[in-house]
């Protein structure tokens, strides 16, 4: 079970770690917890700064607050949430609408969230008179000791798959 306390300012923000091509150590990336997003999405700037190869998709468009935009894609080599490594993660790469870009540069979508049963408990802050934090509990839906690799459909090419494996950081 992974337990994360997320900042809540009208969206839930989760700190993840991502492997980059430009640094020898994992970098912290604050992502918006977005179960309404089918796919994890990062801004073009995050992808470029991380040194990820950005590829063209097959007529892939994503719908968001700014309307429909053409999406490219990349593979985040390794993403870690709460000390659990998720292996390679497929992510859309888009130029974020300016209203969204003011709040975040990454969305954690259902291609990752669907691997977990998630419990969310929002915490009220009397001083702020609003919810200020939320406790998120991520329980893997799979026995991570029995499954060496979780195959995730890779939408870049029909029928092609890539593997993702849970591993624990101690």
Structure commentary:
This protein has 170 residues and is mainly beta. It has one domain: Acid Proteases (Cathepsin D, subunit A, domain 1), CATH 2.40.70. 9% of the residues lie in helices and 52% in strands. It is built from three helices and 15 strands. The chain has helices at residues 44-50, 98-101, 110-113, and strands at 2-8, 12-18, 27-33, 41-43, 55-64, 67-76, 79-81, 84-85, 89-94, 106-108, 116-125, 130-140, 150-153, 161-164, 167-168. Strands 1, 2, 3, 4, 5, 6, 7, 8, 9, 10, 11, 12 and 15 form a 13-stranded mixed beta sheet that branches. It has a two-stranded antiparallel ribbon with strand order 13-14. A hairpin with a 4-residue loop joins strand 11 (116-125) and strand 12 (130-140). The longest helix has 7 residues, at 44-50. The model is unreliable at 146-170 (pLDDT under 50).
């Amino acid at each position: 079970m992974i337990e994360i306390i997320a900042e809540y300012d009208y969206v839930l923000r989760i700190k993840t770690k991502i492997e980059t091509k430009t640094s020898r150590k994992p970098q912290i990336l604050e992502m918006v917890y977005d179960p309404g997003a089918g796919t994890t999405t990062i801004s073009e700037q995050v992808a470029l700064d991380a040194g990820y190869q950005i590829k063209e998709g097959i007529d892939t468009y994503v719908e968001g607050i700014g309307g429909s935009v053409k999406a490219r894609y990349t593979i985040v080599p390794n993403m870690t949430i709460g000390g659990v490594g998720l292996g390679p993660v497929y992510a859309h790469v888009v130029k974020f609408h300016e209203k969204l870009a003011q709040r975040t540069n990454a969305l954690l979508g259902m291609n990752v969230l669907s691997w977990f049963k998630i419990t969310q408990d929002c915490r009220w802050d009397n001083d702020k008179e609003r919810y200020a934090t939320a406790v998120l509990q991520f329980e893997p839906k799979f026995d991570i000791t029995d499954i060496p690799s979780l195959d995730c459909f890779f939408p870049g090419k029909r029928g092609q798959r890539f593997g993702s494996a849970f591993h624990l950081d101690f």
